[in-house]
Design a protein that fits this description.
The protein has a 4-stranded antiparallel β-sheet with strand order 1-4-3-2. The chain has 7 helices and 4 strands. With about 220 residues, it is of the alpha+beta class. The longest helix has about 40 residues.
Length: about 220
């Protein structure tokens, strides 16, 4: 009993010595809770990986298209079709390649009417509807596949891919044919599908992208 009494006295003294005004409360507890949740191991379901494949494919190909439009606009202004022709390959740009490496992805553009024979591919008409159609599948445990149509939306592309003699100057087309003797990539109009982006992604890259995409981001609070 004497020991128990002494313990209660000591404990009481410790507790009584910590007044509310002396307790340091943690700040930003909500942010800390979100950060802790981000570091938790989460189970990613197969359907989640398919969603992430679409997100990653959209991000990569959308970025590549924007880079292509910017580069072509600059080159066409500097030296016309002759200057722009070598740059109509956004999948080879260093910035696009860097993003592809992060996603562990291999992007390529294919079409039934190629300029470069290496881009020749058979494409199902049902998968080439303009606007929002995406094809996403998982060919194997470690590999995912993404495809979306390439639609001619920028009028500057008609200078190389439009109607010869109308949109494509004869001199420019002679230059194109000199470099690509088997060219088939002309005669297009605005809004037409020219081919498709195809991206092959590894499972690890898709899973990492899903984690990044679903990570909670705290909204900044107003200071005043």
């Amino acid at each position: 009993m004497r020991f128990l009494f002494c313990f209660l006295v000591v404990a009481g003294g410790v507790l009584s010595g910590c007044r509310p005004d002396q307790i340091e409360h943690l700040r930003n507890t909500k942010e800390l809770a979100v950060e802790a949740e981000n570091w938790q191991v989460k189970r990613i379901l197969p359907k989640d990986l398919l969603h992430a494949t679409r997100w990653a494919g959209d991000s990569l190909t959308g970025y590549a298209d924007r880079e292509l439009n910017c580069v072509l606009a600059q080159k066409l202004q500097e030296g016309g079709v002759a200057a722009a022709l070598p740059y109509c390959q956004p999948e080879t740009y260093a910035s696009v390649d860097s993003l592809a490496r992060v996603l562990e992805a291999v992007p390529r553009r294919v079409t039934a009417k190629p300029r470069n024979p290496a881009h020749q591919a058979k494409l199902a008409a049902a998968e080439l509807t303009p606007d929002t159609l995406r094809t996403v599948r998982r060919p194997s445990i470690e590999v995912f596949f993404y495809q979306r149509p390439i639609v001619l939306r920028d009028a500057q592309c008609l200078r190389c891919h439009g109607e010869v003699g109308k949109d494509v100057a004869a001199a420019d087309y002679a230059l194109i044919q000199k470099q690509y003797p088997q060219d088939q990539a002309t005669g297009y109009r605005l809004g037409q599908v020219m081919g498709a982006w195809q991206v092959q992604l590894k499972r690890a890259g898709v899973a990492e992208f899903y984690t990044m995409k679903t990570r909670k981001i705290m909204k900044r609070r107003k200071l005043f």
